[in-house]
Amino acid sequence: MTEQSMDEFDVIVIGGGPVGENAASYAIAGSDRTAVIVEHELVGGECSYWACMPSKALLRPGDVLDIARHMPGVKELLGDKTLDVDAVLARRESFTHSLDDSSQVTWAESAGISVVRGHGRISGEKTVDVDGRTLTARHAVVLATGTTASVPKTPGLREALPWISRDATNIHEVPARVAVIGGGVVASEAATWLLAFGAEVTMIVRGSRLLASGEPFASDLVAEALRSRGARILFDADLTAVSRPDAKDTGIGRIHGGPAELTVDGQSITVDEILVAAGRTPASSDLGLSTVGLDDRGYVETDDHLQVRGVPWLYATGDVNGRSPLTHMGKYQGRVAGDVIAARADGKPLNGKRFTASADHGQVPQVVFTPLQVASVGQTEKLARDAGIEVEILGVDIAVAGSSLQQDNFSGHAQLVVDTASDTIIGATFVGPGVDELVHAATIAIVGKVTLEDLWHAVPSYPTVSEVWLRLLESRRA
């Protein structure tokens, strides 16, 4: 085999997270095609080591403790005991493999996918430069580079070496006092486990509510739940300056120096660490996009085949395309893109729904894990009305036999957004303990365009929390 042929592959994927892995594996499945993943950090990506997996590993023990504290026969055994933080962190390490990606590399190789370490950058048509080594694709190049955490240019903030999401999920030292800058998913989830670990948490939120893209009632319930656990939440807050004279780079998840002083609305707040959870930036600035006539700033726009507009051999999947910045949606896009690449390589038409990404158009499910889970899919009431859709809102508290059996302090609310013209659900939100498993039924109803008349015959099992579906239907029976 010549050196040139060793660097030729049918598909090159830049980015080795679950999105890129899906794109590569689907593109070569059941064929003799070859694929390579180019990754400059860890194979497995953000989700495996710095986002989904470690964050949920940190959150779950607090959920279990809360359930136990409100379960007669169990709460008496606990007394005033709190979490064993060292044990929680050890379990987290079991999921992140202490940032060792060897098992992910082994999986890729077992699936017939080569792995090349280094920074991948497009250098021409179907070519990718990896630190001076040139890889050539016969069929396609896929971008799956994701996003990186943004840190605002507030005076003194960057110099203070604040934590970002990677520090929070790979926490090794628990600060006594933490300022969380932001009110979105990362901020709300991190505040949840920091409170469970015993930290004093102050959330500094520029807007007027948490989880601002969701339903207002969900925001209110989450804020109430965080406050009940000790969080201080400052809404419409203006952070104007940060001072931390002895900031030190002590490593991910370790306290970065001495106390920091934050000026918020003219008042001073002193904390031991700052967590910035103020948005993400697409990792597209150093991908060589300008070499093929594309803008190398911002999100990479695609069509519904995930093909980059104007470049038929280039695809963008996951967060970098800005369509739906969630791991499961990125993996979905990776599957679609892989199937499209495979079909085109085989000279087959792109017939069939699986070759077109449609789920990220108003059918996106998401679960936010705070003291109360927020499980949602589809459009909010506001989005629907802004789009000119005439809607009916069905909302009930989650108070059924299944919820009362789950835990004594169960409190939650459910809401459906119904398109009155078609009598189908176009949005759903569930808030409460353990409601994450309710959202898939709503997703199926939305994707399948199931009418409410038909949903009367989808009978929920008794006694489960799913019985709230019946209560929702009954709420419009009159």
From TrEMBL:
Cofactor(s) listed in the protein's UniProt record: FAD
Keyword Oxidoreductase found: yes
Enzyme class, first EC level, given as a word: oxidoreductase
Residue intervals of the FAD/NAD(P)-binding domain: 9-334
Pfam families: Pyr_redox_2 (PF07992), Pyr_redox_dim (PF02852)
Occurrences of domain Pyridine nucleotide-disulphide oxidoreductase dimerisation (ranges): 364-469
Keyword Ribosomal protein tagged: no
This protein's UniProt keywords: FAD, Flavoprotein, NAD, Oxidoreductase
Record-annotated membrane-spanning stretches: none
Protein family (similarity comment): Belongs to the class-I pyridine nucleotide-disulfide oxidoreductase family.
Protein name: NAD(P)/FAD-dependent oxidoreductase
Biological source species: Rhodococcus sovatensis
